[in-house]
Amino acid sequence: MTTLALEGVRVLDMTHVQSGPSATQLLAWLGADVVKVEAPGGDVTRGQLRDVPGADSLYFTMLNCNKRSITLNTKSERGREIFTALLRGADVLVENFAPGAVDRMGFAWERIREINPRIVYASIKGFGEGPYTGFKAYEVVAQAMGGSMATTGFEDGPPMATGAQIGDSGTGIHAVAGILAALFQRERTGRGQRVNVAMQHAVLNLCRVKLRDQQRLARGPLAEYPNEDFGDEVPRSGNASGGGQPGWAVRCAPGGPNDYVYVIVQPVGWAPLAGLIGRPELADDPEWATPQARLPKLAKMFQLIEEWTATLPKWRVLEGLNRHNIPCGPILSTREIIEDASLAANDMIVEVEHPERGTFTTVGNPLKLSDSPTTITTPPLLGQHNQEIYIGELGLGDEELRLLKSGGVI
Questions:
Q1: Sheet-wide strand order for 260-264
Q2: Strand locations in 3-141, DSSP E?
Q3: C-alpha to C-alpha distance for 299 and 184, rounded to whole angstroms
């Protein structure tokens, strides 16, 4: 019988929207018993961007698989008593309310630690302590303040957001790392601890190479960037790789919005690439033969490559490039990704049955553990596990459960 990595770990999930639920869903995929504690009205995303009338939205379902749901009004006296009982049996508490919200419920860290000294209490906030603490944090606000937007886009254009949810889900992954570290340390100390992760800080961690380049600017222009002019800040550089090997997205036939291939030109790849594009003489031309010679004219180099790629579909381009071990990848649209057989075979595109909306497609667990395989299960309906947890696990009676519901406590 398979034992999952986090089997036996109980997580109280007081999160909503994306950053928190993305973290707790990963914990659930790793085997934790994640109990989503929702206000009687439910997580706001159950109804946001709803595409099927009367059913939980994809926004909610794709972030809350493998969990159980209970409802609880923690602003009521009885609700706080029940929450206290839940805390006593929990290993982890995760929340992403506005700063101070859980404290105002009567559950400051000191009180939580008094109730359960072994609990790991993780909070996701927009910002750390300081002038930004009270700012409202959203995905793109975190991108803006963490260094991503200033360095994304083209040189002559405005700052750009990335479609990757590095502010929300990126922070959720950071939170999981902190929670797992705290659980591991608890094995030695017997004590729980506080885990704090800020969205701005997580985005900044993902943008560290741009801070590397900010410091390099003090010693002159960044040769691997295609930009002609450099000021005192790292510029936006379009699709340039910004790393040791230059890369760019080149257009392919028939010229649709995602008919592109990303190509990286390594030193060893230049000669075969020159042959592929019909310019074999460039392999030995001193003006082109070395990385140092090519760096000042990256735009021209990728223009020459694109003159070849623009005549072929991207899959034909990929065949040619891969034959010569030239690093490359197609720009895959969301439609292509959702229809990709290899992603389905790797359990990264998964079909899940839902009792209200039927089958929906979601993203699978990217963490592949040989002894802890993930099975994606349907997200819970609102309060679906009230009876199971309140009666079956906390020992409340049927009549009390009915009174709790009629009184608005659950």
A1: 247-251, 260-264, 328-330
A2: 10-14, 33-38, 67-71, 92-95, 120-125
A3: 49
What does the angle CA 390 – CA 393 – CA 398 come to, to the nearest 5 degrees? 40
Backbone angle region of 325, left / alpha / beta, with phi > 0 → left and psi within -120 to 50 → alpha:
left
pTM of the model: 0.95
Residue 145 and residue 132 in contact, taking contact as beta carbons nearer than 8 Å: yes
| Predicted confidence (pLDDT) per residue in 139-172, tens digit | 999 999 999 999 999 999 999 999 999 999 999 9
Active-site residue flag, 156? no
Question: In angstroms, rounded to a whole number, what is the distance separating the alpha carbons of residues 25 and 31?
Answer: 10
Catalytic choice (168, 229, 284, 285): 168
Backbone angles phi, psi at 123, to 5 degrees: -125, 135
Which residue in the block uniquely carries the two structure tokens 């030995």?
284
Over residues 286-333, the pLDDT tens digits come to 999 999 999 999 999 999 999 999 999 999 999 999 999 999 999 999
Contacts of 29 (CB under 8 A, 6+ apart): 65, 66, 365, 367, 374, 376
